[in-house]
Amino acid sequence: MQSLIIVSGLSGAGKTQAVRCLEDMGYFCVDNIPPALIPKFAELCVQSKAEIKKIALVVDVRGGEFFDSLSEVLAELDQSDVRYHILFLEASDETLIRRFKESRRSHPLSPDGEVLQWVLKERKKLEELRGLAHKIIDTSTMSPAQLKEEMNNLYGDSADTSRLRVTVVSFGYKYGIPMDSDLVFDVRFLPNPHYDPVLRPLTGNHPDVQNFVLSTPGATGFMDKLFELIEFLLPQYVKEGKTTLMIAVGCTGGKHRSVTLANKLTEYLKNKSYRVKVRHRDLDRDAGTGK
After folding, report:
1. Nearest to residue 263, comparing CAs of 280, 284, 250, 246?
2. At CA 273, angle to CA 272 and CA 274, rounded to 5?
């Protein structure tokens, strides 16, 4: 196990959002785990054949009386030479009260729906843990996107591009645009290999089809402009905290032109060190009518 993060803090301070960020970074996350189980859980992860290397555990006052054993558990981890990092999230009393009111949720300690007195009690209860924290984030003035950026800066990979997982999918308009697409590009303006009897049974994965498509007027200019646009957009998505992006490239039947351009775009992104995979959605459909 390379990394164990213990996430705690005040209710309403953003722990759920923080854990979602860690999940996006590939952490195995467990919410509201009893502290007494942490050493055993860490041991199981070390011994796991799945080689779980990044773990985030949320521990807070929802654990009730189990939470009181956290100090002893941390001491046990220290004695076992288990390296861990405590992330503590907090916010001002005013901010926490406003968030509870806006979400219409009650404080987890409150039996009667009141907020302020339980925020103060929780803050008092967490004083010792806050003092042990390796990193404290005050989310009072943070938007979800800003918190995500801070989490990425703290625990993300060193290269910004590695935070964004890109899928490039080719498709045929005759079958419909993929519903989960973020960006859609139409390449039906390029000459269609479908009308060449030799190329018709082939796909955009074949060199002959690729040569035909890429040698047609406008193909090179389109790719240059497409690559320039993508190179501009992707860092902006990363900056805003986006972790997944689907780029769809479509032609009539999803067999020739879209497959060729999707492959070329994938090669370009891989050369730029983005995590990218390509999927040709409609190649398994009726090859005899694909255009």
Report:
1. 280
2. 95
Residues in the chain: 291
pLDDT, averaged in runs of 10, over the chain (291 residues) = 83 92 88 87 72 84 78 86 89 90 78 79 90 92 86 70 81 93 96 95 96 92 95 86 88 96 95 88 63 51
Quickly list DSSP for 146-188.
Answer: HHHHHHHHHHS-SSGGGG-EEEEEEEEGGG---TT-SEEEE-T
Q: How far apart are the first and last CA of the chain?
A: 50
Query: Quick one: pLDDT at residue 286?
Result: 53
Question: How is residue 229 annotated by DSSP?
Answer: H
State how far the Cα of 282 lies from the Cα of 291, in Å rounded to an integer: 10
Of the candidates 72, 68, 92, 84, the one whose C-alpha atom is nearest the C-alpha of residue 135 is 84
